[in-house]
Amino acid sequence: QEVLELLREEITELQYNRYIKQLVYDVKKSTSDMAIFYAPNALVLNWIKNKYTEKITHLFEIKSGNKVNVKITLKNLVAQKGKKQKSDQKPQHSLLNPSHTFDNFMVGGSNQFAYAAVKSVSEAAGEVYNPLFIYGGVGLGKTHLMQSAGNVFLNHGKSVIYTSVEQFLNDFIRHVRNKTMPSFQEKYRKCDVLLIDDVQFLSNKEGIQEEFFHTFEALKGAGKQIILTADKHPKKIGGLEKRLQSRFEWGLVADIQPPELETKIAIIKKKCEINKVKLSNDIINYIATVIESNVREIEGILSKLHAYSQLMHIEIDLAFTKNVLRDQLQENRANLTLDTITNSVAKDLNIKPTEIRSKGRSRNLVYARRVSIYLCRELTHNTMPQLAQYFGMKDHTAISHTIKKINELMKNDEDFRVKIEELTNKITSVS
Ligand code: ADP
Ligand code: MG
After folding, report:
1. Which residues participate in ATP binding (predicted)?
2. Of the bound ligands, which one is closest to the alpha carbon of residue 100?
């Protein structure tokens, strides 16, 4: 409390009241070299962690004369870790995030196959698909899905190990060094369920592949469930022993694709609900449209929006949202070119890209041209004269006229707006 009071003197009253005041110090679990604080939700947690951990650590040192490790976390995460430490023989599950559940996972066309596969494995461990291999791009929910199954198993009293390849490797090295390999093997071979994340990192690491192979064989032989994730199909992971690769494909290989617009909207709504953030539908649509596919990025934006609005005492409206997202968008779009945009529009409307930039006046072409101009203006930093030149128009007034027209349509024609949002979505997710 004294430390937080000290901090209060150094920051604004608003920041203190919005964030720091919500921290709860755990008197029981904290020790002379570890100070544990709880944040009420993930947004406050991220904000404080990024901005204040260093400061709090420093103030602790001033107050107590000790260098203290400051840990800020969500309450339920620590509770789970505490449990683990008491029953030491039980395999670890400390890294399972309790909010990674099936209920919190929004299902759409892009992920329903993987979802269904993980769900059925969670209902019949070891009996349906073993191993289950999930692959897909960054931030598409692989870890979330895998841990959802882990949480179900935990609730059924099964021993679950969740680990990344990196941790598995570190653990291995530590046991080799301490000459305690039998306990390493016992730990990984005695569990009921083994969840290994990001197995693409096994690539070109022969020693650990060998060890992993034997772990795999032992578990599989005993009918224990194994779930694996990677950023690509087993066949595409280079530097992987043939026998491992083929075993990864033994059960079921399921992919996760980037979410479609509706799924993104559902995810945003869910995250708002979980984190108690209120956003209007037009803002939700906007975020879903402009953010590509990475769901982790969407979460970052929600947290940024929330934090800014709290700090600056501003209602989150569309203009504010656009403002906050500007930097983010510029980064995402740095590599979008006029060609990629017109090509996508052409493909979508089934015409040739060269036709869009021709002088053709058929209805279809005019429509495609207008949409391309609008999207090029929205998604790149080209000036109106530059666009005029690209589209072969006399001068920038034709461009500005087109953009005005499209803006009007966007306002008055719901179907058209949806169409444009979908197109934007497509274009930004391929870049
Ligand atoms: P990956 O492991 O594929 O890189 P994660 O599982 O870590 O991705 O997901 C990134 C973030 O996005 C997580 O916070 C996760 O909860 C969230 N997320 C991803 N997909 C969904 C979804 N379909 N529904 C709800 N949240 C999702
Ligand atoms: Mg992951």
Report:
1. 139, 141-143
2. 1
**141 CB within 6 A, ligand 1:** yes
Q: How far apart are CA 75 and CA 2, in angstroms?
A: 21
Residue 373 lies in a domain: yes
Domain of 36, in residue numbers:
2-77
Looking at 256, 283, 304, which one is the last position of a domain? 256
Lowest mean pLDDT among 79-93, 292-306, 365-379: 79-93
ipTM of this predicted complex?
0.99
Domain assignment present for residue 102? The answer is no
C-alpha triplet 144, 226, 128: angle, nearest 5°: 95
Q: Is 138 in the pocket of ligand 1 (CB under 6 A)?
A: yes
The region that residue 317 occupies, defined by phi over 0 for left and psi between -120 and 50 for alpha, beta otherwise, is beta
Looking at the fold, whether 307 and 353 belong to one and the same domain comes out as no
Note the pTM of the prediction, 2 decimals.
Answer: 0.62
Other CB atoms within a 10 A radius of the CB of residue 56 amount to 23
Does residue 279 have a pLDDT over 80?
yes
As a whole number of angstroms, the distance between CA 383 and CA 376 comes to: 10
For residue 400, what is the domain's CATH number? 1.10.1750.10
The CATH number of the domain holding residue 275 is 1.10.8.60
- Cα dihedral 335, 336, 339, 340, rounded to 10, equals 110
Mutating to test ligand 1, I would choose from 113, 197, 265, 296 the residue with most ligand atoms within 8 A of its C-beta, which is 296
